[in-house]
Amino acid sequence: MAGEIRYQRKEESMSDATIIDTLLDTMAPGYGAGGVLLPALLGALTLLLLHHRHQMKRHRERHRQSARDLAVLSDHDALTGLPNRACFEREAAQYLQRHSTALMVFLDLDDFKLINDSLGHRVGDQTLQVIARRLRQMAGDAALVARYSGDEFVLLVPALADGETVAWADRLLAIMRQPVVFNEVELMLSSSIGLARWPQDYKAPCDRVECLVRSADLAMCEAKRAGKNKVCSYHSRLLLVQNHTADIAARLRRLDPDKELSLAFQPRMELATRQVRGAEVLLRWHTAEGEQISPASFIPVAEETGQILGLGYWVMEQACKALARWPVQDDPLVLSINLSARQLMDVQLVDRIEALRERYHLSAAQLEFEITESSAMGDMAGALHVLGRLRARGYGLSLDDFGTGFSSLSHLRSLPVDTVKIDRSFVCNLENERLDRVLVASIIELAGNLGLRVLAEGVETLDQLALLDSLGCDEVQGYFIARPMPEASFLETLVQRPDSAPA
Ligand SMILES: [Mg+2]
User: Fold this and answer.
1) How far is the CA of 281 from the centre of ligand 1 (A)?
2) How much distance in Å is there from the Cα of 485 to the middle of ligand 1?
3) Which of 24, 248, 279, 477 gives 265 a disulfide partner, CB atoms 3.0 to 4.6 angstroms apart?
4) Domain check: are 264 and 412 in the same one?
5) Distance between Cα 10 and ligand 1 center (Å)
6) Does 196 lie in the same domain as 48?
């Protein structure tokens, strides 16, 4: 293992007793020769003292060496041999004192977790070692390079002229993209990079290193948001984004769900019967101050802070309450509820869903849970366990946004879902884009062969609906059928259902 320190223990020299015996034997054979005994003993004692002094010196040297080794170990990351965060912060502070300009670089590997998850931690560790070597080479001797945490690295490099900075960072991106090869596996990696300049991007009176690392980190997050495999430089607007996030998080903590939150229902229509069979449940937030905050801005924050768990259970309870108060039908309506990655990892999830279902006297078939591939991939084993338990109890499961992100056909096979929801991005150009039609037709056929139902999202025109019908799609959802609506309006749309019409 890298960084492991071995202490080479040499054979100890002769024991003191052996030395005395040897000396006495040489200098005073037989011990008893009166006149020579005393000087011999004195000589032996002197030698013994010298030997002891020598031993003590060696012992002290060994002690000093292990103290040095320990210092190296506590300053360096054992896996990559690079300085660790604490060491970097100390040395960067000295660097910034000595230099009037510099560039702080924050680098995060894109989707590194997938390597650990799919190829194992050993390959993951080796990858980090390769990356560390590349960074060290690229940065040069004048730079500080450190492993900040996990798959995050920081570099403090001498400042370059403005035009050169971008070219340098692009070169760094290109070097990171070079394949990493292990045995027969070739890994294609990319990274997201954030830059912050010293002293321009530093705001007194914060700690210099801390402030610059945070600024470069914010820029790196912006690079991720912009689609990864990118370089972004820090600019003050990023701080606004961060403040906005912090503001939403604070308001979520103060939120009174029963007063500020509500559910919207977006009908799902079965194509064979042209009947609404249920709805997707969506969350709406009207703040006490009268502001409407879109789910696109508060759900990611809630997901990041963990507040999504509380919101999620509120949504489930309201959905169950709604189902319980709606008129009883031969063919009960199904409500589908989105589950995030954080919720899937909640150990109480299945028990709490069961408790709600029983409290409101519902059947499991009345509830469906929507997951995305990326939410399941964070912890695939855990997700499979939770989804398996839900499936075994009879709840519906659908794979949301299919076709985006990491869509992989193997997920269709391994995730225990019964419905695939084709992402709206494939549906919006269905009439005009032949490729989209081919893809949608293939997904429908494949899903059908696997025994899965297919729902197309984002249907906005009659042509799209007709095309999807002809391709064998089972269900549709989108503005052409209906927009998300309050409960009362949703119930009104159901009046057209023959089985819900008053007797
Ligand atoms: Mg959904």
Assistant:
1) 8
2) 15
3) 279
4) yes
5) 67
6) no
| pLDDT tens digits, one per residue of 3-54 | 333 333 333 445 555 555 555 555 555 444 445 666 666 677 677 777 777 7
155 domain-assigned: yes
For residue 338, the CA-to-ligand 1 centroid distance in Å is 5
**187 within 8 A of 179, measured Cβ to Cβ:** yes
pTM (predicted TM-score): 0.64
Spacing, Cα 445 to ligand 1 middle (Å): 22
**Domains contained in the chain, number:** 3
69 and 92 both lie in a single domain: no
C-alpha to C-alpha distance for 396 and 400, rounded to whole angstroms: 13
Position 407 confidence tier, pLDDT thresholds 50, 70, 90: low
From the CA of 400, how far away is ligand 1's center (Å)? 5
375 Cα to the center of ligand 1, angstroms = 12
Q: Do residues 139 and 281 share a domain?
A: no
Cα 265 to ligand 1 centroid, rounded to whole Å: 11
Q: What pLDDT is recorded for position 320? A: 97
CATH number at residue 183: 3.30.70.270
pLDDT over 80 (residue 478):
yes
* Residues 6+ away with beta carbon under 8 Å from 281: 263, 264, 265, 315, 318, 319, 335, 336, 337, 338
Centre of ligand 1 from the C-alpha of residue 90, in Å: 47
The alpha carbon of 273 and the centre of ligand 1 are apart by a number of angstroms equal to 22
Q: How far away, in angstroms, is 270 Cα from ligand 1 center? A: 17
How remote is the CA of residue 280 from the centroid of ligand 1, in Å?
Answer: 7
Of 234, 265, 292, the residue at which a domain comes to its end is 234
Residues 348 and 217 in one domain: no
Domain residues for the domain of 92 are 85-234
Question: What is the distance in A from the centroid of ligand 1 to the CA of 403?
Answer: 13
One domain, residues 213 and 67: no
- The secondary structure element, H or E, covering residue 455 is strand 453-456
Query: CB pairs under 8 A, 24+ apart, for 64-70?
Result: 66/5, 66/7, 69/5
> What is the tens place of the pLDDT at every residue in 370-389?
998 888 877 788 899 999 99
pLDDT tens figures, 293-319 = 999 889 988 988 889 999 999 999 999
* Nearest of 364, 418, 417, 367 to residue 393 by alpha carbon: 364
H or E stretch covering 368: strand 367-371
pLDDT 10s digits, 220-261? 998 988 878 999 999 888 888 778 888 899 999 999 999 999
> What beta strand segments (E) does 133-270 contain?
144-149, 152-157, 180-182, 185-187, 191-198, 231-233, 261-270
Domain annotation covers residue 243: no
CA of 464 to the centre of ligand 1 (A): 19
- 144 is a domain residue: yes
**Angle at which helices 308-325 and 295-305 pack, to 10 degrees?**
120
| Residue 54 shares a structural domain with residue 93 | no
Per-residue pLDDT, 32: 44
- Rounded percentage of the chain residues whose pLDDT exceeds 90: 56
What's the gap in Å between 282 CA and the centre of ligand 1? 8
